[in-house]
Design brief:
By secondary structure, the protein is of the alpha/beta class. α3 links the parallel β4 and β5. Helix content is 41%, strand content 14%.
Length: 269
């Protein structure tokens, strides 16, 4: 049976973010593809139901931006605007407000960047912007680190989802600090957690899902692949496999070997 069909059963619950439910647990970005047509084909192959889009890159007031909006609207997916490239609270808030008007959605992937080389989140700026946006009716999905204290404050501010990085954006290094991510999963068992940034291979995505994370958001690993559509399909399969493995219950690692075949009753000559 296909896991997409299983997701309707109690054993395979849908992904719930704020007040909406989704079958797919793979969120896909729209930047850096060879062409808009390949981007839409990749999104279709990934079966993504949430697509992120940067307001800075797409301007619906010109012909190119309008054509892009028409393409992603035709996909019939949830649009998640982001504040990519914002370095200050004021800039992030202004971008989010413009995105709400342009895309007609209160959902926002909130990014406030502290360092342009590492693209590390400015956790204090992130918290400040989140408080203002949530007060103004936004549904904020914050791009954050694995810092538990900041994560707790983001939840207290009203965020219902957390999006910790796996590694710096675009590096493809996978889960650079898996122990911290495990701690985050254990510390917030009832909060939707989406690994965002740094995922470079389907195996990275599967590993994150095996740890119990609820979804994966990625862009570069698909957009810059030699065959983006095939890579999108591979990531979708990896995310589903990792989720199913987590729900099935992974075996605990052991220090010593253990025979898979019982030795009781073995004949001795």
């Amino acid at each position: 049976m296909n896991i997409a069909n299983k997701s309707d059963s109690p054993a395979y619950p849908k992904l719930k973010l704020y007040d909406e439910e989704f079958t797919s647990r793979l969120l896909l970005g729209t930047a850096g593809y060879p062409s808009p047509q390949i981007m839409t084909a990749a999104a279709t192959a990934a079966k993504s139901e949430i697509i992120t889009v940067s307001l800075r890159r797409e301007n619906a007031r010109n012909a190119e931006g309008q054509k892009f909006l028409e393409l992603i609207t035709a996909l019939d997916v949830k649009l998640l605007p982001n504040t990519a490239g914002c370095n200050t609270v004021k800039e992030a808030i202004a971008t989010a407000e413009m995105a709400r008007e342009l895309f007609d959605t209160p959902w926002i992937k909130l990014e406030v960047i502290a360092n342009n080389d590492t693209l590390q989140p400015d956790v204090l700026g992130l918290l400040g912007a989140a408080r203002v946006l949530i007060r103004d009716g936004f549904k904020v999905l914050p791009y954050c680190t694995e810092d538990l204290s900041i994560a707790e404050k983001l939840l207290e501010a009203g965020c219902e989802v957390l999006m910790p990085w796996g590694a710096p954006i675009g590096t493809g290094r996978g889960l650079r600090n898996p122990d911290a991510l495990k701690s985050m999963r254990a510390y917030f068992p009832n909060t939707p957690l989406i690994v965002d940034a740094g995922i470079g291979a389907p195996s990275h995505a599967a590993y994150a899902m095996e740890l119990g994370f609820d979804a994966i958001l990625l862009n570069t690993a698909v957009a810059r692949a030699s065959a983006p559509v095939s890579m999108a399909r591979a990531f979708a399969q990896a995310v589903n496999a990792g989720r199913e493995a987590y729900l099935a219950g992974l075996m605990e690692p052991r220090d010593m070997a253990a025979p898979s075949t019982p030795v009781a009753g073995t004949p001795f000559i």
